[in-house]
Amino acid sequence: MDRSLASNDLTCRIGFSGHSGHLRLEPLPAVERSHPLRSLPDLIIPPAFPPETLESVKKHVEDTYLSPVLDCHEFSSGKNERMWEFNWFDRAKIPLEPSAARSVVAPVWELPFRRSKNWDHLEPWGLKSVQIDVAEIIEEAQDSSTLSCMSGAATDFVRGSIYNRPFHPGGLDNSQSERALPDGARNGEWIHEIFDGGIAQCVTPSFRKGVDLGNLKGFPCQWKLAKRQASLSDNLIEENPGKLSVQFDELFKKVWEKDVYEITEAAEVDEEVVLSTSSRESTEYSALDEILSSGPEQGSSTSSGIVDEKRKKETESWATPGSNDEIASNFHELVPEMALCFPFELDKFQKEAIYYLEKGESVFVAAHTSAGKTVVAEYAFALASKHCTRAVYTAPIKTISNQKYRDFCSKFDVGLLTGDVSLKPEASCLIMTTEILRSMLYRGADIIRDIEWVIFDEVHYVNDAERGVVWEEVIIMLPRHINIVLLSATVPNTTEFADWIGRTKKKKIRVLGTSKRPVPLEHCLYYSGELYKVGDNDTFLPQGFRAAKEVHRKKNSGMSLASCGTHLGGAHVLNQSRHHENLVRGKAQMHSGSQSASNFPGTGGASQNIRGQRKSESSMWLSLIRKLLNKSLLPVIIFCFSKNRCDKSVDNLTSMDLTNSSEKSAIRIFCDKAFSRLKGSDRNLPQIVRVQSLLRRGIGVHHAGLLPIVKEVVEMLFCRGVIKVLFSTETFAMGVNAPARTVVFDALRKFDGKDFRQLLPGEYIQMAGRAGRRGLDDIGTVILMCRDDILEESDLKHVMVGKPTRLESQFRLTYTMILHLLRVEELKVEDMLKRSFAEFHAQKNLPEKERLLVLKLKQTTKTIECIKGEPAIEEYFEMAEQVEAHRDHISQAVMQSHSAQQFLSPGRVVIVKSLSDDDHLLGVIVKTPSTTYKKYVVLVLTTDMASSLQSSATALTKLQVKETCDPLQGYFIEPKGKRGMDDEYFTSVTSRKGSGIINIKLPFRGNAAGMNYEVRELVNNDFVGICNCKIKIDQVRLLEDPKDAAYSKTVQQLLENKPDGTKYPLLLDPVKDLKIKEVTVVESYLMHNQILQKMAVNKCHGCIKLKEHLLLLRDQNRHRDEVNSLKFQMSDEALQQMPDFQGRIDVLKEIMCIDSELVVQIKGRVACAMNSGEELICTECLFENQLDDLEPEEAVAIMSAFVFQQQNTSEPSLPFKLAQAKKRLWDTAIRLGEIQSKFKLAVHPEEYAKENLKFGLVEVVYEWAKGTPFADICKLTDVPEGLVVRTIVRLDETCREFRNAASILGNSALYKKMETASNAIKRDIVFAASLYITGV
């Protein structure tokens, strides 16, 4: 192609290319010219890249390696709202084990009021991020925690579902965290991989770029391996305290085990190990080099420091006492913007509590009654509203929940959740019973995610034997993001209880409280129409008590004189006087003992004038109330510990009227409005008519037998101040916040369901605390009634100024708890047991036991070196222990029996126990006990070989004998030539008949016939066995005139009586000789003799080192036992309720609620849904289809046995069908009781059935479900109306549980039947809305 001129010397070439004839333009080089300027082309192509500068290079490196960039493929806008016309899911290939990133980056939201405020340098708040392991998120998601968990159905948002997993409890050690960490991180393989040239994995998940370190091995470096330099390490720790972290130490733990080198003293500072021979020089060390340069010693010291810090953290108390004066004085500076302002000045403990709540800490407030604990709960509600979270207020009694709902409604967005009521569950502030919160935790309700605070009111209720376990369960199961507020009356161990909560939840608990009541109390005795002051606040005043006692003494002495004066009047008057004295004495004893019926009107003996006693009782109450009225001490609460006692006391005040016309009008209007919601027949119920007449006169009564609406009317009118006198049981002090001017105790004894007992100081303080209205009264008055006698001073002082009851654990295992925890693999029942308050002290001491175990394991024990070859000391020691056990069993029955005593005569061969070790020796009885000498004298063979040491001992004993023997008593001096010959040349001038005198010093030791022997004193218990042979002995030459020849002959006879192959002769026959008749004793005796023969042929028997080796073996065994004991105490087997847990597991397996692998079956899931009744009986009732042949009315009637609680009631009259259903249910309960008894649980079948099935209201509920009016069903039973209503209300909850169980089973017929039954009982006065909820 020819050249073409395009411009000034800018040439190109055009040609054809390919078969299609496309033109191709190719530029040609410019033509060189002589003039340099003209040689430049007209068009200069710019360079491909801009010129490189320092800034451009730096920017390029940052953009390429240091700046994270979102993946354009993953985050492209084209992927938004993309749709396909065919189904991708049919073609998608999903891997079975999809991989996931190891960590993600999540923003950290810091609440505005918790950000640090520097008023000098205001800076914009910056968002912070944190890197979270995906394994942790996945694990929390599985446990329904606060992150990344798919929410359940909207209908289960509040109550949860049986199919949800429980929340992961806060403070519970994560058993999965160890497995979630990859193996490469645990054993150091990742670090070695980087050292060997691997690529460091440092790209942030979901990003394509990150810090690319490249091949680390390619860079030259030097690592200094030396001992720790003090200055360098100190500076490093001060500048970067977080650099030496636990995670880093754990990561490099295995690496150090492989790469550790010993450093010599000569090169301890500047020795360098060159790991790479590159020419690059480096003077700076990375953070990794700085840590590695510290050497193994520093690593170990760092680890030890971390361990010490961990130990310190384990031993420190989690409960921090409050009482900080600086917080109270600088409160408004510390909390400038309060979430809720109060119209009064806060107390010190309230300011401290609010300050700690603002800091997000948990608090435990233990204050006196009426001190203002509710302020703390209100502020927690305010914080939840401010933070857009939720707060939960739990109460032990439904009445408290209803009352708090009314009190809080005017300030907050409040909801109410009880067994039968669910109002505004979406509210930010929820009030519920503790059982509801427990159910929500077990069922994994999604609403738990939003909860920031849980307020436990009346925490001292944890001492309740029946329901106290609920508080412990809830505290243990609360997730870690929830803070706790505990409100309680004053208890002596608040710090201990708070320490348990803090250690369980791994949170600091601030303990706050009051030292004295805001309104002081004075305590008085009311006796014979007068008040005697016996206490001032917490101080007992003995002078007032003595004055009352003196009046009592004078009154009784006057009665005695009157009775003596009537002696001359005739025998009839005398008998009447004696009878009266006995009656008074009997009353006094009953009043100081159990609260007998003779103290109450209408319950005296046959000879007592009932009308006179009623008149006396009435006059006593009238005089007391008039005295209180004159002293301006009304209103008054009179506590009676019986429903009948309350009603009868009120009936004694028929002539008293304490209200004026305006108060009567207000009471009438209020009652008309309150009872207008009832239908006509219910308004005319006898109880309602009677209570209204009492209320108009300013008198009220309050106990569990009243209808719920009647109790609420009484409570509200008392709070308004129109009720002047209120007779109540102790539930009023627990369930209603209604203080009075005065509190009166009818008695100081109560029936607790099992027996009559004295009031506890805590119960007295709780009820007496209702006296004194803060802001209205300067002092509160507490009066104790004394009728015929004065209380003992010790009892009175104990109740008034004694210490309140300590908070004690009532934790017990239930089948529902076990099944709920078995549903989740990560939660174990053992963990629940460990964290109970009952195990608090044992678990708190575990770190100390762990350290003690480490020390024990480091201790070394000496080994036993046998001189006879292979040691057999263990076998010998075991046999000796068995012999000792059998010997203790047969000692009393054999050795001290009359038959055995006949054989214990001189010459009888016996086996005795060695004094120094566990050996058994052969001997012969030389002398039996007598009137002057009370012990046996026995010659025993001590060893089977002669010893030089014992020979010297023999010489010493001979010298002792010669010193003790009197030469004038028959010894003569031998000729000088015959001295040193055998003692057989000595001759005795005494006769052969012994005198019974012992002329040797016991114990007497010697050697004869190659055997060592000893003559010693023994008692019956020292004999191990009696042999069936005797030998001839010379008692005179053995004891009175000792001769070696006699000892030698005796020893030889003993050796001749041993059979071949055995050490001891045969023992007496237990049946023929010793006349033993008990089979167990005979078996033990024979086993004892058999083991003795085995010990005799053991090579350790008679060994001179037996004692030494036994001591060593005892030390080894003691050390082993101590180690095993520590291991046992640290294991789950040491838990107090572990045997009960094993038994309950066996029961659940037996009834097929779980399988052999502890997997919960469908039957177990149904049992989890049963909360109102005994779960096993309810579940068996369902699976045995006991309700299928019953009508809805009959089914709900028989189900009332699950929830009715009163023991003694009249027997109901049941139709044949209901009677059969009752028998079936009773037989099921008996069978379940027998199964539990079979597996060693403390359950008696009959008691188990009586405790959990009470059929007293079956007929009542049956008639109610059929539509019978409430007034008519009350005539069918002697149960109070209030208990009838309570049972039917709880029965509705039971129907709901059975309905849910039917849906689990897929039983649609039972589902509809339970729905029909529930609708049949939900009507009229039984389900009348609470006045606290709807208002009046």
Automatic annotation (TrEMBL):
Would you tell me the Gene Ontology cellular component terms?
A: Ski complex
GO biological process per UniProt: nuclear-transcribed mRNA catabolic process, 3'-5' exonucleolytic nonsense-mediated decay
Q: Which residues form the Helicase C-terminal domain?
A: 624-825
In which residue ranges is the amino acid composition biased (Basic and acidic residues)?
307-316
| Chain ranges of the Helicase ATP-binding domain | 354-509
User: Which superkingdom is the protein from?
Assistant: Eukaryota
Q: Which UniProt keywords apply?
A: ATP-binding, Cytoplasm, Helicase, Hydrolase, Nucleotide-binding, RNA-binding
Q: SUPFAM superfamilies recorded for this chain? A: P-loop containing nucleoside triphosphate hydrolases
- In its keyword annotation, does this UniProt entry include RNA-binding? yes
Residue stretches of biased makeup (Polar residues) = 591-611
Location of region: Disordered:
289-324, 591-612
Q: Name one GO molecular function term.
A: hydrolase activity
Instruction: Mark out the compositionally biased spans (Low complexity).
Output: 293-305
InterPro entries to which the protein is assigned, alphabetical = Beta-barrel_MTR4, DEAD/DEAH_box_helicase_dom, Helicase_ATP-bd, Helicase_C-like, MTR4-like_stalk, P-loop_NTPase, RNA-DNA_Helicase, SKI2-like
The name under which this protein is listed is DExH-box ATP-dependent RNA helicase DExH11
